[in-house]
Structure formats: C-alpha cells, structure tokens
C-alpha cells in the first residue's frame, strides 16, 4: 500500500521543541514536492511549510517563520519538520503530503500526528 507515515508528535510545553518525520511506505516519493499541513479543532487545514522535490525551494506560513524548519532526506525518503519555540496555537494534527512536480494539488497524504502544546 502506497502511503506516507507521520511520527514524532506528542505533548510539549510552550517554548519546547518537536521533530516530526514523514516516511514513505510502499512506493518512493523522492522526486515529489512535499509539504506539512496542520488542522486545529474547529479550524480549516492550513499549509505550514513546503519544500520542492530537489530541496532548492522552501516556503513557510508567516506564523511559523523563524521557528519551524522543513527538510528532506531522499536517501531515506523521509520528510522532516523541526519545530522550535512552540506555542499553544501550534496545537493540531499535522499531516505530510506529496505531489508530482507540476501538479496543482497534493495527491498523497499521511494519516496525521497530533501535536499538543501546553501553556
């Protein structure tokens, strides 16, 4: 089964750090653009960070700039999100996603990992 599998979520105090991972399973996603999204209870899903297929381009939501870093290790076919200086408003379910280069939308999604930041 082709899928993306997130891990690394958990409960952390405000100001703490977490590192999320997203591993490919069942097929390779090495040449895909990838991204992290999150969804808080009662809110719409939002884009957090994105990285191009070759790692040459990254983009971040204004709310996480300077605190989060997206990276990829294509040898392991794994996507990462390093989250520092976490705030309670970062709480939510985090999803990784992948899309073919040139595609308008993300076709492949993980099941999500929960991040809870306590104040």
Summarize the SSE layout with pairings.
Elements: E1 3-7, E2 10-13, E3 18-25, E4 33-39, E5 46-51, E6 58-60, E7 68-73, E8 78-83, E9 92-99, E10 108-109, E11 113-118
Parallel strand pairs: 2-11
Antiparallel strand pairs: 1-3, 3-8, 4-5, 4-9, 5-6, 7-8, 9-10, 9-11
Q: Your description of this structure?
A:
Helix content is 0%, strand content 51%. The chain has 119 residues and is mostly beta strands. The strands form two sheets. Strands 2, 4, 5, 6, 9, 10 and 11 form a seven-stranded mixed β-sheet that branches. Strands 1-3-8-7 form a four-stranded antiparallel β-sheet, with no helix packed on it. A hairpin with a 6-residue loop joins β4 and β5. It is globular.
What's the quick description here?
The chain has 119 residues and is mainly beta.
Secondary-structure element order, as H and E? EEEEEEEEEEE
Number of strands: 11
The separation of the N and C termini measures 39 Å
Whole-number average pLDDT? 96
User: Which spans have pLDDT < 50 for at least 5 consecutive residues?
Assistant: none
Structural class: mainly beta
Rounded to the nearest angstrom, the radius of gyration is 13 Å
Which key terms come to mind for this protein?
119 residues, mainly beta, seven-stranded mixed sheet, four-stranded antiparallel sheet, globular
């Amino acid at each position: 089964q082709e899928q993306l599998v997130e891990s690394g979520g958990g409960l952390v105090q405000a100001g703490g750090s977490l590192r999320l991972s997203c591993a490919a399973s069942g097929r390779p996603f090495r040449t895909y653009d990838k991204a992290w999204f999150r969804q808080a209870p009662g809110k719409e899903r939002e884009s957090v960070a994105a990285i191009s297929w070759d790692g040459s381009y990254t983009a971040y939501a204004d709310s996480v700039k300077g605190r989060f870093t997206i990276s990829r290790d294509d040898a392991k076919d794994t996507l990462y999100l390093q989250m520092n200086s976490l705030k309670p408003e970062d709480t939510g379910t985090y999803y990784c996603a992948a899309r073919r280069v040139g595609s308008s939308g993300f076709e492949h999604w993980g099941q999500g990992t929960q991040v809870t930041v306590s104040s």
